[in-house]
Amino acid sequence: MAKSWRTVAADLALAGSAIGIAIVAAEALGPLIARRLASPPAVTFYEESWRTVHFDPVIGYRLSGAPSRFLRYCDGRLEFEGVLRGNNHGFPDRDDFELARADGSRTRVVVFGDSFSAGQYLAVSWPDRIEDLARESDRGLETLNLSVDGGGLANWWSILHRWALPGRLEADLAVFAVFPGDLDRHFSLSDHRDTDRHLFARVPSWDPRTYPQTPDDARDVLGPLAGFVVDRPTYEAALRGEISASVAALEEPPPRFGTFLLTRLRRLLRSSDTRASDPDRHCSRSEWEPAQLRLVEEIDRDLDALGLRRIVVFIGAREDVVREPACDPVKERDFAERIHAEFFDGREMFSNLDAASRSALFFPVDGHWNQRGSDAFAGYLHARLGVLLPGGPVAAQSTSDGLRD
Prior knowledge:
Distance between the termini: 96 Å
Strand content: 15-25%
Number of domains: 1
CATH topology: Rossmann fold
Oligomer: single chain
Order of helices and strands: HEEEEEEHHEHEEEHEHHHHEHHEHH
Number of strands: 13
């Protein structure tokens, strides 16, 4: 027997009420569920780093000789602890050095890189490990680590053009250790003085005339990232895992439940489909900008003026290293060609390892390699330097290997 219109209307009203109640309940309880399901934010603590991290118009920020411990939590677990400390020029090298060569028999290798090369979250960075390996093999080799954690192309240009060239740096080879995105990084700066947060910024321009020149200029562009500058007792408490209040301060407002589910679904679809649908993807998706290329051209001229030969070695991202197919470092190779450098794909160091062994060379959550991974890279590059730089200083050798004098 067909329902009357009154019965149908009542059923529709009941269904509508049920849907409305479900929507209200989802919006009320959903954010709590989303917060429970979402990963805790990554957070870094710096111990009294106001003594250590100081804005510098040439480097981006200078590291003083006062050591500052720092630690990072990811997904609520301690991922690593390191020590920030600079040498006599404010760079993350464990040794002091001068621009002039002190010992004419030692080969000097200048390193330009980012956090992977600064490596102060590790006990020993890969440039320092290469020195150790050279010492073990009775080779005279000195690495000058000019890397900037968080920096890239613009900082490398500034250090080379505004510091190394005017100071007539004496060295034999420049190594550019390039991570995906490094070539698109504008001038990066930081300062931990008079603040309780990790302040960091990248100037949104390739024009060096726009780069900050004073601490006050820097303050106009610096902003807080997920890090806290704390005193020693607070740092020790964070080291024991007492970070809940600080982490809560970094959390965004809980997302609407529907938005949260859609975001998670999109991530799953991207992670599963991107590699299959785009096996020939480039590691860098951006094109060169004219002002950006002017810095590259000036890097090439400055290296010529200093008589430095050069290599570019590509450092792959963890996700790209562990899972295949790998991206194509087209822009990184082009950078090498533009500065007349030999190019090496550092992912070759993983070629004989399975996915699990590759993954074991990185931290569980943070994207950086761990001490084993950094040491493996040092061994990979040291072997190539042994071929490129046999014996004494490079300047006295033939250029038949393809590197430019």
